[in-house]
Fold these 3 entries.
Entry 1:
Amino acid sequence: MLALLRLLLIGRAALVAENLFLRKQLALFQERKARPRKAAASTRLSMIALARFFDWREALVIVKPETFIGWHRTAFRAFWRWKSRKPGRPPLPKDLRELVREMAAANPAWGEERIADELSLKLGIRVSPRTVGKYLDKLRPRGRRASNQRWATFVRNHAKGIVACDFMVSVTASMRVLYVFVAMEIGSRRILHTNVTAHPTAEWTLQQFRECFAYDHPYLYLIHDRDSIFSASLDSDLKGFGLRVLKTPVRAPKANAYCERLIGTIRRECLDFLIPLNERHLRRIVGEFVIHYNRGRPHSALGPGIPEPPQAKVPAGPHRHELLAGCRVESTPVLGGLHHEYRLEKEAA
């Protein structure tokens, strides 16, 4: 733009001299037979715009006429595609957009599905995850399902009667390695039991199962990997609980995909943001996250739903993008504000 203003202000003699000077440089460029590089989009657009003010056919030196015509046709098609585009869905109301951004800012580990589920289950606002995604700066890549269809089918058909368990590692501020035991019910995604130890043994693990399973528990199967902690004697003792042990194949973490996913969730949404001071501190952190996971965290695989849903259902508003009249949004921090649980509260009269 500054170069164009300069051309309009300088005298005709200076303009002719500069034009000849530039042409001499182009002639020298052609004599050396230097290979021209591909023109940038901004260069193409500026040349197309300038060509409207003079006979460009005589001014082409490096660019071939058919190339320049192709640029013009491409720009013409792009212009009409932009002008003929169909209008999309209307944007969300301003207060809802601000609420979505507030949730995303306050909960960095949440993706579009999690925020959409939170709005639907807790606040009665029905927004698709794709719509939520438009207002987020960064979205998480979507994962893939387990490729072993036969095993996945078995797990789905018996999910309510299957418990999966595993260990995960956490390091304290003093570089001490601790082990977190996790057991979950696959059907409801509910975490049944967790505990922390620095020395996991078969005897300690058996005690965790005693605390996990009541005398009249409804479960039929227990999935665990081939870690040496799950010894043959431990599996034999588990039969006394009325459980059939299903050991995963060697180097097949997808066979215990639900528990692996749970451990990944605990890491991504909890332990990756905190440094436990000691064993007691880690036990408290995990315990608080388990309560949030079971009673306040929406799960897309459940419909969306919550493993231990509240008794009262959230009433829907008059419009899918509006709150119920006379209600306001309240939030409760979890783990010092690492996450938040949202709910509707009636406004004071």
Entry 2:
Amino acid sequence: MINLELYKIFVIVAQELNITKASEKLNISQPAVTKHIKNLENILEKTLFKRNNKGLELTEIGEKLYQKLKTPIYEIIEIDKEFSKNNNIIIGSHNHLLNIVFGECINEFCLKYPNINLDLKCLETTKMLEMLKNKELDIVFSKKVEEFENQNIKYISLGQLNDIFITNQKSNLAKKIVTIKELENSIIYVPRNYAQTVTRLNKLTNGIKLNLKNSSYNTILEVTSKSDAIGLITKEYVEKEKLEKYNLVELKTELELKPIEFGIYVNLERKKEVDFLIKIIEKNLI
């Protein structure tokens, strides 16, 4: 019996009539495509293609074979796509939360289920929840979004995270409780402007205009270690040793930054593979 893969390659080449385009579509090298076509011709003892000025054209027998094969082969390709999709979990998360909080869970899942692929999308939280609602994402790792409600989405609480102000330990601010007025007169380096941390800060200050500079976590650590600037970070996202390396300390302020809940959002109707991941997460984090 002829290998179905040879027929699949034949159909793609017959559609494109170009080895280069076919190889790109099949994600294999041009020599490999040529070799597979030659193997099929040898097995069938028929010439399926001939060359012309534009590239390739089907012979009469090649055209007959193509017309018989194209519908079933494309149906098989679609089945493959659907099967692969079901063995694929698309995760929405921010890098720090994924790597630091969920990292061990992800590693355990990959070792236990090597045939299930994990894809990551890093977007603004409300965008990720919208994609989850539309089943464009399978699961979202996030701090809890208080105003989000959807009857088809389940939220599973896993714990709490703590947002803190940091500064250089040599700064005069490090030795006192900083007032809101002093915060107003300081440069504060914060995560991206869509981060929930920043949204919470704006609510706490009751409309007071703070001088916020959007930065990456590494930039926040670098700048605050070399100046009197203030940084705002999620404590659990940065190892204690890293804060010590940069000579940074937690800053006490009049603002009460309460712990914030974090967890996972999932569709009530979801792939069984997502439940495998949820079990590992609940075992490790609850």
Entry 3:
Amino acid sequence: MSQTLHSLLRAVGLPWPEQLANVPIEAITCDSRCVSRGSLFLGLPGVRVDGGSFWPRALADGAAAAVIGPAAAAVQPPGPEDPVLVVPEPVAQWIGELAAAFWQRPSSRMTLIGVTGTNGKTTTTHLIEHLSLEAGRPAALFGTLVNRWPGHSITATHTTAFADRLQAQLAEAVAGGTQVAAMEVSSHALEQQRVAGCRFAGAVFTNLTQDHLDYHPSMQAYFEAKARLFSTPLLLEDGIRAVVNVDDPWGRQLAERLGARCWRCSLEPDQEAELTMTDLVMRSSGVEGRLITPKGEGRFASPLVGRFNLMNLMQAVAVLQQQGLPLPLLLEGLGSFRGVPGRMERVVVPSAAAAQLPAVLVDYAHTPDGLKNALEACRPFVEGRLICVFGCGGDRDRGKRPQMASIAAKLADRVVVTSDNPRTENPQQILADVVEGLPSSTDRVVEGDRAAAIAAAVAEARPGDLVLIAGKGHEDYQILGTEKVHFDDREEAEKALRSRLIR
């Protein structure tokens, strides 16, 4: 793909000085180490380093031109002959728009649906992808676990990629025949404008609970970052394109802002909402009930467990209804969605003696609300004790540590406190912070070695007990210091279950 520099700048409304040559642009990149001859270097400001300050290296390595911000220009002032354009703030917004223009605005050539919130993003986006495919619409998925579209699948490295790579991936998805794409949109991505240049046809707000307060200065700031997805230029203006969980207090605040431009979803009988569920029957095999929507109602059955998953189901159906997919097809598709790796995932060891083993579930719950939802989802299926194994990450919001401990103590019968990803923080200090939130009467074990903690919890559990291992879910690593080492809760749980069979 090739364009001229001037045509690219014109497409996004950026003026340029007369001396800036109209050179051909063969590629774009935000990484000065990845420039090739004829590429446009987009100097993206970062949290620690302003990428724009690397423009001399980019030009030396063959870049045809560079776009940088005022701060980078102050550090490394370009000369009058340098092919460098200094754009005004917000620099990341301009870079996103340029990336989208280079790739012929791929989000406008598909139905792009963004999902934001503290919990539920991954399950909801996987549901949107699944339901679209079941309805005969080629679909793409961009998220925490994987980025995939027809003919392509790769493990994700960020919840939301940076603008140059994201727009390239969207263009590849369009070329592969994608009609509907579901994207997890993190608060970091919105704050850092990684999705600038995208035009969303639909947007979903799942909930907002305490998380990432190491990054956002307050819950209000965290909310405002999420709310950006629901305003222009990100969300298209025409029609009703937003779906909001109004059982969440922050969701109610967002719904009030949006007014008639959103559909409200609720599981509470006294909450005013466009979508709700009735006649619910929950079993260990899943849930069934009736879904009521602005475009009709109908019965559904799903193998997912947990009340929180009902909101995920409802919101996925709602946003696809807004895009014109028929309700009967969507309800039928719910029955064949088996869930997401690491989200209430059962660890099973095939054996004739399996009935003598406790149930073990692995879940990604790593926030107070996420842990509460997971434990409450487990309780109806526990005949004996509910044992919770969890920890809290290092170099992250310390305030949630005692909160999560308090929730575990209240909702579980036995609590096993262990390490999560300590990172560069002292693991013993993290454990101490967590234990502060445990009442003295709590039936507890504190074991910093996560593998040993899982093994002990499974070993002591009796038939009829349920062990919930929370925090890491699908992750196959643990971060110790600055090093990533292989670690998978599911593997450790399976190992512990197998060891019981040979005792």
